Amino acid sequence: MRRFITAAVFSCALAAPAAAQQAPFSDSAIQPSKGVIAWRQLATHTEYSNDPTGQREDLSDLRLTTGLTYGLSSTLAVEAQVPVIVRSWDRTGGGSEDEVGLGDPSLALRWRFWQDDTGAVDTRRAVLIAGAELPSGDDEFSSESVDPFLGAAYSQISGRWAFNADARFKLNTSSERDASRVTPGDFADEALLANASVLYRLTPKAWGPDATVSSYAILELNGLFETGGDAEVMLAPGYLWEAQGWAWEVSVQLPIVQDVENRFERNWSVRAGLRFLF
Fold this sequence. Notes:
Mean pLDDT: 89
CATH class: Mainly Beta
Number of domains: 1
Helix content: under 10%
Strand order of the largest sheet: 1-2-3-5-6-7-8-9-10-11-12-13
Order of helices and strands: HEEEEEEEEEEEEE
Number of helices: 1
Distance between the termini: 34 Å
CATH topology: Porin
Strand content: over 45%
CATH superfamily: monomeric porin ompg
């Protein structure tokens, strides 16, 4: 199973939406134009430790997320995400177990309320995001509640540099405080997710009529703060390759601040993705 998980993640990196200079683990204010569909396929492998129940060791989680964003108008877009989860772990005292199931899908409306284009490519944009995570019905992978969220994102492209910042507050309406939970930001505690990313265009050095492919080095910070007191800040270096209409991305996420008592700790994550515009 471990070999399958690793192969699945990196196979996604080799084959992906016009990325609009969005970092792998963060959101951005860039969204498709009216009538355009952006499809993003992500594979995220995460290793966890310190089960609060003491029953599981060396838990790994592969999350295959399909995301679709459709431009309703020049400023409005609707976004849907559906995760499929493959989870495996060693039981304390011996033996192992694997599970496959459907995580909670989400549906959101994105409103770009501000845009300032300062050049042919350079731009500054801001969006508001409102939506909810919906129960999948899979008891092992669902919070079994409707969890609304509200957020915002800002993006700026200036020359060879791009900057993104986003924050999202999720109201977890479940009353269940399940100590066996795995996914950060789920179940009874409210969660604030905050991200910042910077991208530097490696190639081309300057845009020209023959420049149809670009590549970027990425560095991002990803924070998660729960009302129960758990907090994490992750550092994620990555790489993005963009062509006309499609792109692929890969990134590794490592903890730099971790204060977690009520759930599993994330040891590291690797994410690979494909993105397409139609």
